[in-house]
Amino acid sequence: MRDPDIGAVRPAATGAPRLDGAFLAPGSSSFSDFLSTQAPDLLPVRRGLPPGNAADLAPHGTTIVAASFPGGVVMAGDRRATMGHVIAQRDIEKVFPADEYSVVGIAGSAGLAVELVRLFQTELEHYEKIEGTTLSLDGKANRLAALIRGNLGMAMQGLAVVPLFAGFDHRTDHGRIFSYDVTGGRYEETSFHSVGSGSLFARGALKKLYRDDLTETEAVTATIQALYDAADDDSATGGPDMARRIFPVVSIITADGHRRVPDAEVAGLADQVVQARLQRPDGPVAGLL
Questions:
Q1: C-alpha dist (Å) from residue 103 to 53, 65, 167, 176, 220
Q2: pLDDT score of 38
Q3: Secondary structure (3-state) at 251
Q4: Rounded Cα distance, 218 and 210, in Å
Q5: How far apart are CA 99 and CA 144, in angstroms?
Q6: What whole-number distance in Å separates Cα of residue 289 and Cα of residue 287?
Q7: Which of 37, 62, 133, 183 is catalytic?
Q8: pLDDT score recorded for residue 57
């Protein structure tokens, strides 16, 4: 019996599973291109919406920050999702590994963004299986831009997805950060960047805290400080939740690959940041000269 969801033939009761010819024919190394021809209704960008603005009907993720350091890059995201003026979720995760050497953080319509991230992960894995090698970091950034561009119709109805992408580039031997707009425009950032509703305040904090010679731990601490400042001025960004012990998700990418910083380690650094803020609420002060 044919499965309408994937265009394949289900296994017979007593025989081996069979595949449609499309699954065996040579074609593009892009999984999303293949899906668009075989099961376009499964692509999030192909789902139509009635006229009107849907921005307040679904939870939104907020602030993501990233900062490079010698040997890699750090990305961190707060845990709050909002729906209008209501906190929809306090412990959402917005930072995901894209593959072994890259990471993507989401801001915007949360459910759609998570679905796009899963499609992006599959896209990179599919390319590696078909081509026998991984995409370059620039190639990964371009593939993500194409997926965002395909979501423009939904973005115009309020369901925008604006990710932040970072990874380790083995060709240049350092970490790189890429930002996007809702049309799929791709921009490489220098040293640090932030996206989401609290990004203005997070970037301001990083501008004062960032140095080119930060250690890995210092870079993680700087991103936690930036998220604290974002939460201090933006109601949609969640700060460290000391009562529930909910802290940012932090990922580090180096030449050794992706590593999520253990929750206990993030909690320890967040506790130090909060304790220091009790003495100096506005946070660390940068020198005038």
A1: 30, 12, 6, 11, 15
A2: 62
A3: strand
A4: 9
A5: 13
A6: 5
A7: 62
A8: 58
Ranges of the chain with pLDDT below 50: 1-10, 12
Q: Is 82 annotated as catalytic?
A: no
SS3 label, residue 40: helix
Written as one string, the DSSP assignment of 142-158 is HHHHHHHHHTHHHHTTT
Judge whether 73 and 253 are in contact, CB under 8 Å: yes
Q: Kindly report the number of other CB atoms within 10 A of residue 127's CB atom.
A: 21
What does the chain come to in residues?
Answer: 289
b/e per residue, 53-77, with b = 16+ CB within 10 A?
Answer: eeeeebbbbbbbbbbbbebbbbbbb
Helices 137-150 and 31-38, interaxial angle, to 10°?
A: 30
Strand-pair partners of 250: 76
**pLDDT at residue 113, as a whole number:** 87
* Ordered domains of the chain (ranges, CATH): 55-279 (3.60.20.10)
Q: How large is the C-alpha radius of gyration of the chain?
A: 21
